[in-house]
Every structure is written in C-alpha cells, then in structure tokens.
What we know:
Elements: E1 7-8, E2 17-18, H1 23-49, H2 51-85, E3 88-91, E4 98-101, H3 103-137, H4 140-158, H5 161-224, H6 237-301
Antiparallel strand pairs: 1-2, 3-4
Amino acid sequence: MTAIRKHRRNPNGGEPERSVGGAGADKRVPLKKLALTILLLGLVVLAWLGTLSQYGEDYIDRVFTQALTTFAVARALNGVISVAQGTKLAVEPAGVGANFALGEVLDPINDLIERFSWVMLASTTALGLQKLLLEMAGWWGIRIFLLGSALLFMACLWWPARIYWQFSPWVKQLLLMALLLNFAVPTVAFLSGQVFEDFIREKQQVSMRALERESQEFKRIEESLPSEEDRIKEQTWQEKLSQLMGGMRKSLDFEAEIQRLKVKSEEIAEHVIALIVVFVLQTIILPLLLIWLLLRAIRIIQ
C-alpha cells in the first residue's frame, strides 16, 4: 500500500502536522537534527580551542609589523626629502655662479610621501582595531554565551514540534548573535590572510624592497649634490682658475645628478602608489567586504 501523504491541520494552530506516511520521512528529520547538532557542537569546540582566533591574531600581528615598518620608511623618506627641499644648490657653469632650491624637483614626490604616511597611519589604526575586536572575540564570557545558546537551541531542536515552533525564532536569533560574536572577526581575519598569501604578499614585498632601495639611492644622490655652504668664500686666483676650468664639467655632472634624482622620484612614486593600493585593500576594503558578505549570508540563512 502506498503511504498517505496528506497533511492534517493542527487544531492548536501553527504548523500543519504531517501524517505518518512512511519510514523514509521519519528518518530524514532525525538525520537533519543530528547533523545540525554535530555541526553546532563542532563550532562550540572550535570556539573554545581558539584555533581560528589564533590564526587571525598571527596574521594581524604580521601585517601590523609590516605596516609599522612601512610607515617608518615613509617617515624617514619624508624627512630626507624635507631636508633636501630646504637645501640650496650652488653651481658655477663657466665660472658664473647660480643658486636654486631642490623644492622645484621634490615638491610632487614630497606631497605623495606625506599622503602615503597618512594612509599608513590609517591602515595601522584599522589593524589595531581588528586586533582589539579579535581579542574581545576570544573572551571566555563570549564563549560561554555561545555554549549556552547552542545548548538551548539543541534542546528546542529535539523537543516536540509544537514547542520547537514556539521558541525557535528567538532562540535562533540568540544563536546567530553568539556565532557572529565568536566567529565574525576571526573568520574575516582568516579569509584576509588567505587572500593576502595568494594574491598580495609577493607584490607587497617587491614594492617594499624596491622602496627601501630607491630611498637609499635617493639619499646618496641628494648628498652628492654641491650645496651653497660648501662654496669657499675667499679663494686665491689659482683656485679660481682651477674652479673655472672644471666649472663646465661639474655643471654637466650636476645636471646628470638632477636628472637621476627626477628618475628616482618617479620610481619611488610608482612603488609608493603600489603600496597604498596594497595596504588600503588589505587593511580596510577587504575586511569590510568580507564582513558585508558574512552579514548577507546570515540574512539568507535567516
């Protein structure tokens, strides 16, 4: 005989009662409950072990150190450029003295470095906030809240259907809140770490090494330029004659150094822009995007 599939209206209202029409239907419901119970117990154990939180803390500490190092390099480079901007150069092509400041060459790159310093400060602040939230997620009180919510939900899950449908909505909301508090920030940190390792890490390291190298070369070129203070106030006629003979050669060398300085400024600007993109994506845009996706997923589940 085929099993009867009709539903009877519950006289007390609420969900209709399913008629006992086959052994398969009776087995599917307990299996779902059992799977959900095992999943919740696994999440509770994961929260208490703190494996996900520890991975997130290691990732944020690593990125925080990188951000501080990059910020220090940016501030040091900004200091070198600021000093160079206030330096007047003395050139004597063909014996005719000429003075001008490096500010004309360095103004654009100096403005970019200052903005880069502000970006790194914002990135470091965002990482500090993420670290604080991660430490709060690992607090024992939040873990106990998750344990209690999970036990309450499992109790409602295995109670009779009438009791389950009566208490399920607010118990489910309580459980989702506990899961969000325990796993939202660690999950975002974990996913951010995976994206960083797969797509960002190599670009960041290349740009960082290049920026440090170009900064040292930039400083060396700036120190090699003749400053106005290096000029000799009183010279003999032999010294003046010698300076006159070498004037044109020095002026050509000076122009070559200035050109190299411009090229280095452009190379530094390229690496600075690359690091700005990397750190803004890594510390601000990516975490916010992952949090938004997580909240959207929770709404769909609800």
